[in-house]
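Data deposition worksheet. Section B asks for the primary sequence of the deposited chain exactly as it was used as input, without tags or linkers unless they were present during the calculation. Section C holds the resulting structure in token form. Section D is free text for depositor observations; keep each observation to a single sentence. Incomplete worksheets are returned to the depositor.
Section A, Depositor: J.P.
Section B:
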Amino acid sequence: MTDLLEKTKTKNIAKPSTQKLADKETKKIAMSETRAKKIKHSYKVKDAENALLLQTKYGDVIIEMMPDIAPNHVTRIKELVRQGFYNGLKFHRVIEGFMAQAGCPRGDGTGGSGKKLKAEFNRRQHKRGTVSMARAMDPDSGDSQFFICYADCPWLDGQYTIWGEVTSGMEFVDMLKKGGGQSGMVNAPDEIIAMSVIADL
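Section C:
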């Protein structure tokens, strides 16, 4: 993320490559029917088809997606979620007061799903809880990696595709293990236990 960190002391979010995990390599996480029903009905989301449950060891995070402003990104994220792509992936880059990044199958910021997305920049602002797509210098280089903002980041507005917002469980995102140094890379990072589309629970 060359432009993203202009106003921070960190350098960049690594460019995703086209590595894709085979379906057999992705983790499938089972959930009891009772728990699934409880989750589905306990979170008052606007649209269960466009809302995600992101499970961490600290607690459940609910992300409401925005197909009205980033339809192609939302469609692709749901495809990956339903494939189990994100299950077990790490929050490999986490910077205190800035953002937490995940979605790299290699765990180092250099991997992706193998399908780049055309940018869908919009007028939404990067605020605490915003979920946005990581990319390299090329605006159309977003793939599977995304980040969740810890604070308002106005210098990112109009430069990265916002596709969702954390509406519940941001306190658990706050608890993710932070990285060190200028890059924010995390040693022994926390992982996404599983991601699900709430309509599928």
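Section D:
The chain has three helices and eight strands.
The chain has one domain: 31-200.
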